[in-house]
Amino acid sequence: MSAALHPAPGGRAAWRERWLNWRNGLVADPRFQRWAAVSPFTRFIAQRRAKALFDLCAGFVYSQILLACVRLRLFETLAAGPQDVSEIASRLALSPEAAHRLLRAAASLKLLRALPGDRFALDDLGASMLGNPTVAAFVEHHTLLYDDLRDPVALLRGETTTRLSDFWPYAKGDAGDESACGAYSELMARSQKLIAQDVLDAYPLGRHQCLLDIGGGEGAFLSVVAARHPALRLQLFDLPPVAARARRLLASQGLSRVEVHSGSFLDTPPPQGADVVTLIRVLHDHDDDKALAALRAAHSALPPGGTLLVAEPMAETRGAEAIGDAYFGFYLLAMGSGRPRRHAEMIQLLQAAGFERIRLLKSPRPLFASVLTARRV
Ligand SMILES: CC(C)=CCC/C(C)=C/CC/C(C)=C/C=C/C(C)=C/C=C/C=C(C)/C=C/C=C(C)/C=C/C=C(C)/C=C/CC(C)(C)O
Ligand SMILES: C[S@@+](CC[C@H](N)C(=O)[O-])C[C@H]1O[C@@H](n2cnc3c(N)ncnc32)[C@H](O)[C@@H]1O
């Protein structure tokens, strides 16, 4: 970036930068670190910072312990109640020593709880895994992401080919065939359980007559909408191989009332008739030009005054900053397309496509998806 675009700050901002620089010099000084670690005024802060840095160093190890639990079906094994190490070891086909190591590790991560007598039970996080089987599917799927992240600098420099870009063929501009689209469509459909109800709680659709879901995948979101709004007319638009899967799956669920249309929002006009269009987890996996094309497609499908509903993880979501900028930032980099956007960037994009009255709605779990509405001009 040139200095002209980002001139050195003045006033309060300049003072803030000088203070930050002085503070960082102090924190980086080993003598200050030693003093802070023992001083009764600072030792709790120093310990918290050291632990936070250690957790960043160890994050991959923690993830792989979770992967071992998922692959060995440890949470399902303990679903009926606590068991002792030898019982668990024989169920997991591990030696008692290996089982003990895994169980203690999982207990330290609050997945399990260690009980007296070498017995182990689920703890809150292990029980949450049982209640959200989608998370286990993501944990398995992360083997692709972690392969791609083996050399993060090469990834940042665009020097690698990635496994995630094969998993998401449209990220490379390839619509893929039904089998290539099957894996991602199934993963997305399963993970709608974390999103669909939250979106509908944030924006009840009661006043609408017809909803078009652009990039609607296999129709998992629309099947939740159908159950809540029996009278709403429903349309789905997705790439031809995905639309074919949606037609089959929706028919098998008795949901032939969903009209399935196939095409690409890059070159095919979507169907007309909707007074609300949804884009769920579509914009963030496209670069600006294609995201703008998706928004223009939504605009063309709506009448003036029609509503657009966007739901996806966003950057700088309070309490979920690392999920947006770190997890999705690097996930989408490995995928080869898109980036998590900040609220201000979403507003710019939406306005450029002809939307106004853009509102960020209160949603139950914005860490999974923030929900925005906008009005077609
Ligand atoms: C009973 C007593 C006395 C006390 C209980 C105390 C209490 C209230 C405990 C809380 C228990 C509770 C309700 C727990 C709930 C836990 C839940 C709901 C956990 C959910 C976890 C979800 C996770 C970890 C989700 C992970 C999602 C991931 C990794 C999503 C990845 C998405 C991707 C890669 C999307 C790709 C799409 C693309 C391409 C980017 O567009
Ligand atoms: C990350 S998935 C989200 C699917 C679904 N909305 C959900 O949240 O479960 C993105 C979807 O957009 C579709 N898609 C990608 N590029 C498209 C395009 N050019 N035209 C239409 N759909 C597209 C994909 O096939 C996929 O179903």
UniProtKB/TrEMBL annotation:
It comes from the Bacteria. Residues 175-356 form the O-methyltransferase C-terminal domain. GO terms for molecular function: methyltransferase activity. It comes from Methylocystis rosea. InterPro entries: COMT-like, COMT_C, COMT_dimerisation, SAM-dependent_MTases_sf, WH-like_DNA-bd_sf, WH_DNA-bd_sf. Pfam families: Dimerisation, Methyltransf_2. Residues 55-123 form the O-methyltransferase dimerisation domain. One of its GO terms (biological process) is methylation. This is Methyltransferase domain-containing protein. Keywords: Methyltransferase, S-adenosyl-L-methionine, Transferase.
